[in-house]
């Protein structure tokens, strides 16, 4: 009978579901008290942590997940689940809702955008789930703690580095910006511009938007090279765009004339630290993923029954040829 | 003729479709060099039997032997390998490919470099077409050809397969008389070279001409086998439908009324002329209410194009001349306007342009008259159902349930649905394009009866047909078209098929100048 | 077989295939049931409670599909006439941006903003209908272009970035009445977006059942040439269908904006594909002329339940994509097995 095919198909789907899922957690928990942190059972407890990531396709966020995974391994009480919203606010809302349904013990979220995620984060927080927000903030104060970098400060550090170290005698700077409308883009720009004012002999001769992408940075740089016979420094809002700019300059044999600066300094093979170590970039500035810090904060809340700061801003570090190899090794301890 | 050589022997063939037994214990044989005609109403089981033979249907009861060896085909490819080729009623051609490409589809000729040898394919296709009695440019896309021409291409394609057994399903349904003659020459030649041919047709006179033996199927069983040259048409028809048929044609009484339609020197100059299309180049004719006027002409004479112009579906262009309906000048630009004027149209190819085959009988019947079954765009289901049932009764439609797909009906009943749809719009004038093409004898007779009835109620009918007996038998008057112009008009009371043919071909015929009605 | 020769217009016995045919007609409903049952079986439990069927979770499931569902209803109309509309995700984005900009930046009231946004969607869709019906460009191409145009318009209107919506009476605040659209009703159980989706779905089902227009729509999709010759106003039907689809995409955009408190030009990227998937799973033929809104609704819910149960079990997001892909293929394969007529 043909009609058998429907249950068969359903069974096949069900089998896939079954094959994919591990054992479901069997824990008991106290009824949550509305508002603040619940269920600290100390070192004897078992805790499920939900990590809601905005978009794993970005290397920075992949690294964030990896850092969380690695750090959580050191805490035997923790079981971390991961969800990826693939850059879709609505999907991330659903991801958090599903974590709430699963009655997780703590939520770590790196929001895709602030406003759309605020309500659902508040919903989790109001149900008594501690929430650690990473990298991008949500609005209001319905979360336990925020851990992130300060993009204005990073831009400012980059500006200072250009004004004092690279071009004390002044010169021409080209700026490759991130995606228009993104907050980090605006902040990295503002911090930089304010800092280089200290040296009036520096001019930003051109700026273009590379949308955070290597190939876009390369294409924009192609055009900028044609229009600007003298470029001394290229300041890109992230490492991939800086690398793209380097490739564009190299293609016309001008890569030696200028210095390339990036941001993020991911300690991965394709990241900025390696690029500095291999001499393509002059310097990059760390933008911490906060993965380690997030798990530390979770441990303080759940295992130590302590409290964490509402806001924890991690400082940036300058990576240049002098320390690149050493820091890369530190960030990737041999296992 | 090699009578003894049993080329094909099918015995005890049975096939069920759900609750319907399409074939029951059928024995059928074909000798080398024999033309075996297969007759029967649509749905009698002819097509199923032949689909079994050509490997299209693989699950059946009974056995097939080819040259005495039992075979069971796993698919059409197996059957083709065994030398069995079928020319389907539904033309299986790729419209976007050229005639030559279609003929050699799947077995393209190659050059030494293994690339397609287009030039050789075109040359050989040309030769094949010539053999089948057509002159066509092998480079023309098949989609541009008229239905009849496409049919000739499929025949040429089948012949090119060098088959030992050739199944022809209604090969002449869209051919003109002269083309039919040439096809028969081809058949006779094939027979001489030992090819066995199964010839399915509704046209008795053709069968008498070419077939050596004829078998009649009814309701999946063999009713009789006979020598087609001995039995009369009436006897064969009776065997097919299972009851005596007094007369095929209902002779209409010439009791016609006022002038309904007057076409005055109508011409259409298409903005973008399409090849193979013959738009009206100056046609004048009239149809009175209660009158059935035939449109005769060869393929490409412009019959379909005239009907399309009257119905408002001709290509965009400049129309000159006048169309008067009940004395009022009209110029329909789309079917809706034509329908609003009271003009209905039954197109030539009901499957391609008449019906949505996978929609219900009900939906297909009422689609033209929907606004009348309710208010404010909301359909009152009971009203549309009632209308549909009423029409089914009136047309003596044979069907299961109104919700059944119209595609499950036999060809004749499908055609009745298209008729019914138009009648529900309560037209004053009905334009019919080959309304009995591919329709079995029984349904044909009913369509003729219906036309007579409609004319009796004062409807005017303009009927384009390639079947001369039909035109003579059904119409009060026949207008002959040639090259987009009207060249003659005959009263059927005192002229015959020969007159029509002569006028249509323009071969030494006497051109009568006919002004208006006789 | 009964002898029907002399009994015209009488009913012949029901063919045995009709039971199977019925099963296939409601394929997506059975599929939904199967997935639903599977979800219950594989749902994580807590204190004996099956998490999947908790009221809150079920509300989440339907809320999460409400936007795709609304779009998919419009998409069903388009696919029923044998077309496709790739612009719906972009129109959703345009509508979300429009709602936010009008209410926040232009300080328009709730009703005028919503109405204008709906009209924009309607007109946008109608223009695409004109391009495909009157100029004769394939709808795939027309709406591919429409997708780019709608995204471009959304970027221009929003200034390239998301416009956050906060509520209040002050300047640059949206009216509180708009926020209601994102809330829950019936004791905080049923999200308003779900109600909107339900109303749209029911209206569409009823509309397709009783209207003369729907017969025309099916006829155009089934055999456009036959429909034209039958006097169906093919051009008008096509334009209306694309207009409806645009209207519903705009409605979904409004729902999107209120749920996320923001209108961003990047909203709704890829939603057209989810909507098409829901329609296909719902048993509507991409060739046109065959299918139903009820099937689409079931298809959308099926995808929603599937998403939910995979997430509740924390299946890796990459594996989730594989499973969803397989489900779409399975649904399409089932249609191929539909009894031929």
UniProtKB/TrEMBL annotation, chain A:
<keyword id="KW-0732">Signal</keyword>
<dbReference type="Pfam" id="PF13407">
    <property type="entry name" value="Peripla_BP_4"/>
</dbReference>
<comment type="similarity">
    <text>Belongs to the bacterial solute-binding protein 2 family.</text>
</comment>
<feature type="signal peptide">
    <location>
        <begin position="1"/>
        <end position="19"/>
    </location>
</feature>
<dbReference type="InterPro" id="IPR025997">
    <property type="entry name" value="SBP_2_dom"/>
</dbReference>
<feature type="domain" description="Periplasmic binding protein">
    <location>
        <begin position="49"/>
        <end position="302"/>
    </location>
</feature>
<protein>
    <submittedName>
        <fullName>ABC transporter substrate-binding protein</fullName>
    </submittedName>
</protein>
<dbReference type="InterPro" id="IPR028082">
    <property type="entry name" value="Peripla_BP_I"/>
</dbReference>
<dbReference type="GO" id="GO:0030313">
    <property type="term" value="C:cell envelope"/>
</dbReference>
<dbReference type="GO" id="GO:0030246">
    <property type="term" value="F:carbohydrate binding"/>
</dbReference>
UniProtKB/TrEMBL annotation, chain B:
<dbReference type="InterPro" id="IPR027417">
    <property type="entry name" value="P-loop_NTPase"/>
</dbReference>
<keyword id="KW-1003">Cell membrane</keyword>
<protein>
    <submittedName>
        <fullName>Sugar ABC transporter ATP-binding protein</fullName>
    </submittedName>
</protein>
<dbReference type="InterPro" id="IPR003439">
    <property type="entry name" value="ABC_transporter-like_ATP-bd"/>
</dbReference>
<keyword id="KW-1278">Translocase</keyword>
<dbReference type="InterPro" id="IPR050107">
    <property type="entry name" value="ABC_carbohydrate_import_ATPase"/>
</dbReference>
<dbReference type="Pfam" id="PF00005">
    <property type="entry name" value="ABC_tran"/>
</dbReference>
<keyword id="KW-0813">Transport</keyword>
<keyword id="KW-0547">Nucleotide-binding</keyword>
<keyword id="KW-0067">ATP-binding</keyword>
<dbReference type="InterPro" id="IPR003593">
    <property type="entry name" value="AAA+_ATPase"/>
</dbReference>
<dbReference type="GO" id="GO:0016887">
    <property type="term" value="F:ATP hydrolysis activity"/>
</dbReference>
<dbReference type="GO" id="GO:0005524">
    <property type="term" value="F:ATP binding"/>
</dbReference>
<dbReference type="InterPro" id="IPR017871">
    <property type="entry name" value="ABC_transporter-like_CS"/>
</dbReference>
<feature type="domain" description="ABC transporter">
    <location>
        <begin position="8"/>
        <end position="244"/>
    </location>
</feature>
UniProtKB/TrEMBL annotation, chain C:
<protein>
    <submittedName>
        <fullName>ABC transporter permease</fullName>
    </submittedName>
</protein>
<keyword id="KW-0812">Transmembrane</keyword>
<dbReference type="Pfam" id="PF02653">
    <property type="entry name" value="BPD_transp_2"/>
</dbReference>
<dbReference type="GO" id="GO:0005886">
    <property type="term" value="C:plasma membrane"/>
</dbReference>
<feature type="transmembrane region" description="Helical">
    <location>
        <begin position="116"/>
        <end position="137"/>
    </location>
</feature>
<dbReference type="GO" id="GO:0022857">
    <property type="term" value="F:transmembrane transporter activity"/>
</dbReference>
<feature type="transmembrane region" description="Helical">
    <location>
        <begin position="24"/>
        <end position="43"/>
    </location>
</feature>
<feature type="transmembrane region" description="Helical">
    <location>
        <begin position="64"/>
        <end position="81"/>
    </location>
</feature>
<keyword id="KW-1133">Transmembrane helix</keyword>
<keyword id="KW-1003">Cell membrane</keyword>
<dbReference type="InterPro" id="IPR001851">
    <property type="entry name" value="ABC_transp_permease"/>
</dbReference>
<feature type="transmembrane region" description="Helical">
    <location>
        <begin position="237"/>
        <end position="257"/>
    </location>
</feature>
<feature type="transmembrane region" description="Helical">
    <location>
        <begin position="293"/>
        <end position="313"/>
    </location>
</feature>
<keyword id="KW-0472">Membrane</keyword>
<feature type="transmembrane region" description="Helical">
    <location>
        <begin position="186"/>
        <end position="208"/>
    </location>
</feature>
